[in-house]
Design a protein that fits this description.
This protein has twelve helices and seven strands. The protein is α/β, with parallel strands linked by helices. The protein has two domains: about 160 residues, Rossmann fold (3-Layer(aba) Sandwich); about 110 residues, 6-phosphogluconate dehydrogenase C-terminal fold, CATH 1.10.3660. The radius of gyration is 21 Å and the shape is elongated. The relative contact order is 0.10.
Length: about 270
């Protein structure tokens, strides 16, 4: 939908989904120009292929399209992790196919065709990790596409990407899930639920994400996420110790957190 609304690019969009009702709805709604009966016919003759599916499904898609993509086709994905996907692309795709890993930093906790938002990418950072064999022309094509939907291209090494997003994206998802289970599992939850308001809603939002998708993210970035979990637990233990003391240390820690977040908000809005 974002591509169709863009005046900077004119494309014919061919769509495929394993759910036939999704393809039908996409065609009827004008989201795609043409529906494909299977993934191989979807990529037949394509100049650009976008794989937008759960991380662990991407390898199977790469294997299936490998012998069907046109020479010099550009292939990209939207997966939340990159290093493993880049390795799969190297193993599965012919050398004359330019693969450029992609990850728009603009997700929602809801999913499915009923949740489409053409403005989702506007103003967001869109990570791009070109494979070593990706041609300059392919990189330029994808950079133009990203800009055409209102996003900001950000070129980054796949391993560095996974290390960074483990802290700012994957860890918050797990914290949200653990927070929800620790509170709703309490015998007092029926009474607590009546008091849960904005703060609870904000912190629990990411727990509404697709469990299969979030599981795949964790499995494909296991080591980096575990490092951030350990770091967070160490910080939480510091707060626990501070609560047992006179309170001044706790106030100072909370003040540092407040200041750090304010600096981030100011930098983000520049």
């Amino acid at each position: 939908m974002a591509l169709k609304r863009s005046a900077a690019i004119e494309v014919e969009i061919v769509g495929f989904s394993r759910r036939s009702e999704t393809v039908t709805r996409a065609k009827e709604s004008g989201i795609i120009d043409r529906a494909a009966g299977d993934v191989t016919s979807a990529v037949d003759g394509a100049d650009l292929v976008i794989i937008a599916t759960h991380v662990m499904t991407i390898r199977r898609v790469l294997e299936r399209i490998s012998g069907h993509v046109s020479p010099e086709c550009v292939v990209t994905d939207t997966g939340s992790t990159k290093a493993e996907i880049m390795q799969w692309a190297e193993e599965c795709l012919p050398r004359n196919i330019s693969f450029i890993g992609g990850h728009p930093m603009a997700g929602k906790e809801t999913s499915g065709i009923n949740e489409i938002d053409p403005d989702l990418f506007r103003g967001c950072v869109y990570c791009l990790s070109p494979a070593p064999n990706a041609t300059p022309g392919a990189v330029q094509t994808l950079e133009m596409l990203v800009k055409s939907i209102g996003a900001r291209p950000f070129f980054i090494d796949a391993g560095e990407h996974d290390r960074l997003v483990a802290g700012v994206s994957h860890l918050p998802m797990l914290l949200s899930a653990a927070f929800v289970l620790s509170t709703t599992g309490s015998s007092s939850w029926p009474e607590m639920a009546k008091l849960a308001a904005g703060g609870y809603r904000d912190l629990s939002r990411l727990a509404s994400g697709n469990p299969e998708m979030n599981r795949d993210i964790c499995l494909s970035n296991r080591e980096e996420i575990i490092r951030w979990i350990d770091s967070y637990l160490d910080e939480l233990k510091k707060y626990r110790r501070l609560m047992e003391e006179d309170g001044e240390g706790l106030r100072d820690a909370l003040a540092r957190a407040q200041e750090a977040r304010q600096r981030w908000l100011q930098e983000e809005n520049r």
